[in-house]
Design goal:
single chain, alpha+beta, 6-stranded mixed beta sheet, 3-stranded antiparallel beta sheet, 15% strand, globular
Length: 383
Amino acid sequence: MESKQLHSIIGIWTNACRFLLAAGFFFSGFVKAVDPLGTQYKIQDYLEVFGWAASVPAFLPFLASVLQAMVEFCLGVYLLFGIRRRMTTLFVVLIMGVMTPLTLWLALSNPISDCGCFGDAVTLTNWETFGKNIVLFIAAYSTFRWKKEIIRFISAKTEWLVSLYTILFVFALSFYCLAHLPVLDFRPYKIGKNILQGMEIPDGAKPNVYETTFLMEKDGEKKEFSLENYPDSTWTFVDTRTVLKEKGYEPPIHDFSLVEQSTGEDITDKVLTDINYTFLLVAHRIEEADDSNIDLINEIYDYSVENGYGFYCLTSSPSEEIELWRDKTGAEYPFCLVDDITLKTMIRSNPGLMLIRNGVILNKWNDADLPDEYALTGKLETL
């Protein structure tokens, strides 16, 4: 009797762990598939932390992004339906066996503030991520240890069909969101958001406290300094690192500023408080931007001028690259310098187009979906 009760308890525990893991992997894979470029940017952050960015081919982070989304999504579906229990539980316990100590290192050293495991949908601190992975590792070990207790919801003969449709779905979703824009936008720059309101700090809110460390070199010796003991000019600057020491309130949008490239003037308030329409062409690295639709972009700029709308190109590229772009494309629109990470967050396209009015984001377009003369048939007020 006791043996049967124990077996029943193990079965309930194993399947509870199985559903927890299925939900975690399914959600993690789905948000990565929805935003493959966001996952690519996070992988590039990891490569830079480990010093591998220069040695890794440019296509590899994107390939890893799509494959990671596929693997996590498929594992979630396999756990949910009880498909290939031995292989699935082995993969899950191996993944958690690698990720748990990795997130412990991230929590201790804090080289990246957010591991990116749930994309922009759910942001966790590194310690929260480590705690989450401890729970998932226990669940993964339990499902692997008692994998025969996992209840199957489909027959072995139909496993291949579910597997096939799962893989096709996640690949199709990833490439659709890459070719256009993410079908779900979890970032603070989604359509309908007010950029000015996203930058506000409530009265009495405590700001973040950061500590900046400077790596300096003198006579072959490298040493770290803080702002309080910054050395004299005989030391040469090597690198800087800013660490969050005390968490306070951080507005959803905290790095948005527009500095006109030609004059150096900050026009952030001017653009965000303009009650007229403004087009923002976003190209985080202008030298890497797709120029296949440049004629259409120039037409949209001409349309803006004719109707009295604002039009600015936002980039983080240096002036020489901006001039090369002007020479290559005949661009006459003004350029503004903006933080690179901010531009990547604003829109997942290089270039991409955003329409705002009085600080509110009205629409966003991927480079492949720009409005043409058939869409812009009159003033925006009437369209």
